[in-house]
Specification:
Blueprint lengths: L1 H14 L3 H7 L11 E4 L4 H4 L3 H11 L6 E7 L2 E6 L1 H15 L13 E5 L11 H19 L3 E5 L7 H13 L2 H7 L1 H17 L2 H15 L2 H25 L16 H10 L3 E4 L2 E4 L9 E4 L7 H16 L3 E7 L3 H13 L8 E6 L2 E3 L2 E2 L10 H19 L6 H19 L6 E3 L1 H4 L7 H17 L17 H10 L2 H10 L4 H20 L7 H25 L8
This protein binds arginine.
Arginine binds next to β9.
Length: 565
């Protein structure tokens, strides 16, 4: 926003600092009494070798005047800027309404590429609620970085290779049927896979046969590969149904199997760099100096592992996309795995190991207990999304039975509620799934934010507003509620940057609740369609700006914004 820049310019000149450094230090105080922008001087104590409050007073004494601010004052270690409300409203609202859907964009990422590895479920296994987080967090990060001008590459690193497929083939040979798999898909594959584990407890020879099948897969045996490919296709079809419902996309479905023919070279490279050592017949990279258990590269039977594939994938991605950052979104229980193989990349002498980022998240559990695959208590993503839509349909039938396009809106709101709930919580926090919480239209929820957007749309529609009036008199927006809305919507780009820096989409979700709350206060305090044309036009321009910010913000989170609900 221009005002922040203006304040930074004044400070930079008075304190003889770089403007970018000042910009990074300026805060927006939560308390209105401290002005619209504040510059804290604590961090300068070292540089100027003085107490922060003396520095503040010093800088304040040297500040030039400016038309943008009605008052600039020094309070303790802060310099507070009070903007002229009407010119502030004008600047903010016009910049939103002129930019439209482009509002919030910036060019900081121009020419840089970010690879995002997200969702990445394991084929032939149910797509359960635990996968939801990786999918929606990764997808939101994609949108966040894209908004900042980065080129994003979204990769679904499917778990589609490994000894488990040897087990699945053996299980299918023993107990499977083509018809049942075709009819029931993943759930049938899961059934025979579970049976395999039960039977293998009693008869270890099953494991030998499973290993033999995996060896065949690795050797490209026709039967083994065609069964594997069949399981793969069935799984992808089911996953895609879920992605379609969630509105999630990927640029590439390059799973673990994609690296089959690329791992030998990496193993050779590790050898050549003297990093590979033998340990009980397996090949490992020792990480004792980093105080971590060794990273397993080859099994005793020569088979590769999860880490081998991740190392290979990282080298491939660096070569192919020359990324600025490569981000991995997975549950927190994979922390050690990522720390280990990031270290291996570093030991291989690649300085870009610092650009590999693990973005972990906490567990999802149900109100009545944990989500566990073993005990068979899985909630399938698809069932959950269907349930969300069904419940929302019930709410709409009760609250607004004549709503046109009811089915579509129920999908947008129901699925939006699930996504929003997941993203509203900080990543690391464990989430307990609660329908009542996420579908509450008055809480800090997706439906609440969507409802606020619909409310803005409906006022604009009622006013016959299609584009802003000429010569708007922004001085009529000088009330506190209006000023608060302006201040909030002005923060959009800063919030997107913060979300990117912290890899934390919750920053955007929480911000949208702030926007909605400040708007609802303004809406409550003021008659938008006032008799006075001047007042009405200015208020409508503000409503239009709010509509734009909420819609763009929801789009970042991967949530639709219906105009009526
Ligand atoms: N398939 C793994 C799982 O479900 C997640 C993969 C994450 N990505 C990666 N490059 N390791 O646990």
């Amino acid at each position: 926003m221009d005002f922040k820049y203006e304040a930074a310019k004044l400070i930079a000149k008075a304190a003889d600092m770089e403007i970018d450094e000042v910009l990074g230090m300026i805060e927006v105080p939560a308390n209105k009494e401290m002005g619209d922008y504040a510059f804290p001087c604590f961090k300068l104590a070292k540089k100027f070798r003085k107490a922060p409050n003396l520095i503040a007073a010093d800088i304040c004494g040297k500040l030039e005047g400016s038309d943008s601010f009605t008052k600039i004052e020094c309070v303790a270690a802060y310099i507070n800027f009070f903007t002229d409300k009407s010119s502030y409203a004008k600047t903010v609202i016009e910049s939103v309404n002129n930019a439209g859907a482009k509002y919030g964009e910036s060019s900081e990422g121009e020419g840089k590429t970010i690879v995002i590895d997200y969702s990445s479920p394991n084929i032939a296994k149910p797509f359960h609620v635990g996968h939801l987080r990786s999918t929606v967090i990764g997808s939101a990060l994609y949108n966040i970085f894209e908004k900042l001008g980065y080129k994003c590459v979204g990769i679904n690193h499917l778990g589609d290779w490994g000894t488990q497929f040897g087990k699945l083939i053996e299980a299918y040979k023993l107990w499977g049927s083509k018809e049942a798999v075709e009819e029931k898909g993943i759930s049938e594959l899961t059934r025979i896979y579970v049976k395999f584990h039960e039977e293998a407890e009693k008869d270890d020879s099953l494991n030998d046969r499973a290993r033999a099948w995996f060896v065949k897969m690795q050797d490209g045996d026709e039967e083994a590969i065609s069964l594997w490919k069949w399981f793969y296709d069935i799984s992808i079809k089911e996953f895609e149904r879920v992605y379609e419902k969630l509105g999630v996309k990927f640029d590439y479905y390059t799973g673990e199997s994609f690296y089959n023919d690329k791992m030998d070279a990496v193993v050779e490279e590790l050898k050549a760099k003297n990093l590979l050592v033998e340990s009980n017949g397996a090949m490992i990279v020792d990480l004792e100096d980093a105080k971590m258990p060794p990273c397993l590269i080859l099994r005793t039977d020569g088979g590769t592992l999860y880490a081998t594939r991740d190392i290979t994938a990282a080298l491939y991605r660096k070569k192919t996309y020359d990324f600025d950052k490569c981000i991995y979104v997975t549950a927190i229980d994979q922390n050690l795995h990522f720390a280990q193989w990031f270290k291996v990349i570093e030991k291989m002498g690649y300085d870009w190991s610092k650009d590999l980022v693990h973005v972990p998240f906490g567990l999802v559990s149900l109100e009545d207990g944990k989500l566990s695959t073993r005990k068979g208590k899985v909630v399938l993503m698809e069932d959950l999304l269907n349930e969300a839509v069904k419940k929302t349909t019930g709410i709409i039938d009760e609250k607004n039975p004549d709503l046109p396009n009811k089915e579509e809106v129920a999908k947008q709101v129901g699925i939006g509620a699930v996504i929003f709930d997941d993203l509203y919580n900080g990543r690391i926090k464990d989430i307990v799934f609660s329908w009542d919480r996420m579908l509450n239209f008055d809480g800090e929820t997706g439906p609440y934010v969507q409802y606020t957007h619909a409310r803005a749309c409906s006022v604009l529609k009622k006013a016959g507003y299609d584009k802003k009036a000429e010569n708007i008199d922004y001085s009529v927006l000088a009330d506190d509620a209006a000023a608060d809305v302006c201040k909030t919507i002005a923060l959009f780009n800063d919030k997107i940057k913060e979300a990117a820096n912290r890899y934390e989409p919750s920053v955007i979700a929480r911000y949208l609740v702030d926007v909605a709350q400040s708007f609802n206060k303004f809406y409550h305090d003021n008659i938008i369609l006032a008799d006075d044309e001047n007042v009405k036009n200015a208020r409508l321009a503000l409503v239009d700006a709010v509509r734009t910010v909420i819609k763009s913000g929801l789009a970042i989170l991967g949530i639709d914004a219906p105009e009526q609900m």
